[in-house]
């Protein structure tokens, strides 16, 4: 699809129009606590391509019409003592955008501005969809902690950190994507609200100086990466460059080291960091393999332990000692994170092996093949692939977890053994290559079967239609 929103590195916080009208002031929202900046943070791709000319925003997004992209006039405060204007990318103006959500979502035009009690149900439904339909949620946000922060935000909007507001926008965007794609066939345009959310996320990250790291930065960035990965075409270089920046920021924050190395981190923070790192490991392999590039995270650089099989209700910010993992026969919010991590570590080894620039002995191929098989065997029974005929009592989310884990196992097998499909290579390696050819062909046939399941069950009325995004 034509991408109407430039990536994070190319968005500058500024008003999109020169309209002469001004926003009606909201007495409950002010910018008294707005963070002042002495300098602007370095844009992402500018860091990676120093000196490269940056195209003008109009060149990136085309020439939108007034009907498709309303101009932002910023916000103007008037009282007896001062007249104060801020542009559309200012912290306070972005916060004002929260109160426009109901207008945008319901497309009510220029009607009266909704009050907080009117707005809350719409946002509540979106947040509920995020936690109940998206498998990303438990690895990025602790539900109980977020709920407390969410209620605090609505009680005092101006006191919320700007990066937290970016996190909220990212959650709303992912929720809108899930709702939109569930009812949208390929080729149809996304709801304009999705692009509005994307822009707000970027503005919050920029104003919050994401390069300085800090609370909510990595979670918001990974949400933004997931959004860009979803709406852009496969193998998009901007998504890959964004991934590289996020990996560097994560390592700069010590996420690649287990929290047990740092006594100052609470058990709660340490466990959430493990979940977040497992998610980043997954994103690295998915995006890097799409680009045909080596992965960015190397196993020897990391010592992050596996997350525990716990529900969010099992621990919180006040937890002094983490409880032991629940049995893997028990489905929790973290179980699919654990299963994916095991498979992705093996797939990562296959990616590293095939990226080697020197020939490797066949025993190395078989060593990694053994890793893949062990990872498959370690998948909890409830998340192992099974026929749909005996899955009809399982939720669509659980079925999709099984399918995704199975896809990644077969993808790793193909990556590892693909070169032995070449007849000349097979003849050079003799009988040993027969195993690789059979393994690769078998994985390909399994993926064809999965593709058929997707084609049938993601249609309207199918088992997976509600999670087809």
From TrEMBL:
Q: Could you state one GO biological process linked to this protein?
A: DNA-templated transcription
For the region Disordered, what residue ranges are annotated? 1-68
User: Taxonomically, which superkingdom?
Assistant: Eukaryota
What keywords were assigned to this record?
A: Nucleus
One annotated GO molecular function? DNA binding
Please state where this protein is localized: Nucleus
Nucleus is among the record's keywords: yes
Q: Where is the composition biased (Low complexity)?
A: 12-21
Q: Where is the Xylanolytic transcriptional activator regulatory domain?
A: 239-313
Cellular component aspect of the GO annotation: nucleus
Q: Which SMART domains match?
A: Fungal_trans
| Entry keyword Nucleus | yes
Q: Which InterPro entries match?
A: Sec_Metabolite_Reg, XnlR_reg_dom
PANTHER family, A to Z: UNCHARACTERIZED TRANSCRIPTIONAL REGULATORY PROTEIN (PTHR31001), ZN(II)2CYS6 TRANSCRIPTION FACTOR (EUROFUNG) (PTHR31001:SF74)
According to UniProt, the name of this protein is Xylanolytic transcriptional activator regulatory domain-containing protein
Q: Which organism is it from?
A: Xylaria grammica
Phylogenetic placement of the source organism: Eukaryota, Fungi, Dikarya, Ascomycota, Pezizomycotina
């Amino acid at each position: 699809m034509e991408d109407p929103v430039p990536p994070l590195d190319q968005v500058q916080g500024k008003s999109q129009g020169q309209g002469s009208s001004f926003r009606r002031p909201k007495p409950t929202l002010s910018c008294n606590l707005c963070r002042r900046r002495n300098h602007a943070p370095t844009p992402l791709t500018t860091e990676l391509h120093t000196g490269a000319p940056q195209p003008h925003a109009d060149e990136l997004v085309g020439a939108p019409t007034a009907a498709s992209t309303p101009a932002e006039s910023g916000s103007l405060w008037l009282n007896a003592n001062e007249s104060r204007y801020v542009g559309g990318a200012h912290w306070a103006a972005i916060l004002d955008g929260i109160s426009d959500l109901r207008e945008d979502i319901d497309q009510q035009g220029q009607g009266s501005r909704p009050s907080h009690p009117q707005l809350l149900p719409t946002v509540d439904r979106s947040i509920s969809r995020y936690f109940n339909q998206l498998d990303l949620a438990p690895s990025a946000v602790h539900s109980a902690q977020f709920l407390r922060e969410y209620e605090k935000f609505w009680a005092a909007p101006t006191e919320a950190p700007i990066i937290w507001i970016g996190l909220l926008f990212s959650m709303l965007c992912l929720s809108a994507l899930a709702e939109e794609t569930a009812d949208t066939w390929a080729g149809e345009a996304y709801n304009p609200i999705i692009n509005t959310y994307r822009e707000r996320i970027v503005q919050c990250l920029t104003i919050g100086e994401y390069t300085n790291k800090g609370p909510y930065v990595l979670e918001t960035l990974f949400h933004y990466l997931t959004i860009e990965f979803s709406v852009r075409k496969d193998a998009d270089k901007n998504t890959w460059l964004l991934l590289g920046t996020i990996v560097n920021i994560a390592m700069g924050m010590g996420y690649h080291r287990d929290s047990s190395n740092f006594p100052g981190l609470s058990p709660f923070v340490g466990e959430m960091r493990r979940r977040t790192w497992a998610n980043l490991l997954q994103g690295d392999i998915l995006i890097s393999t799409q680009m045909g590039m080596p992965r960015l995270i190397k196993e020897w650089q990391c010592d992050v332990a596996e997350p525990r099989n716990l529900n969010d209700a099992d621990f919180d910010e006040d937890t002094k000692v983490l409880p032991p993992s629940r049995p893997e026969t028990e489905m929790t919010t973290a179980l699919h994170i654990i299963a994916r991590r095991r498979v992705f570590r093996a797939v990562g080894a296959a990616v590293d092996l095939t990226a080697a620039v020197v020939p490797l002995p066949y025993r190395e191929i078989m060593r990694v093949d053994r890793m893949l098989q062990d990872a498959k065997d370690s998948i909890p029974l409830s998340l192992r692939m099974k026929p749909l005929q005996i899955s009809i009592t399982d939720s669509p989310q659980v079925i999709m977890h099984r399918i995704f884990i199975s896809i990644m196992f077969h993808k790793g097998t193909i990556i590892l053994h693909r070169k032995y499909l070449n007849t000349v290579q097979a003849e050079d390696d003799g009988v040993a290559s027969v195993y690789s050819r059979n393994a690769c062909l078998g994985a390909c046939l399994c993926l064809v079967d999965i593709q058929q399941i997707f084609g049938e069950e993601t249609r309207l009325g199918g088992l997976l239609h509600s999670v087809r995004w």
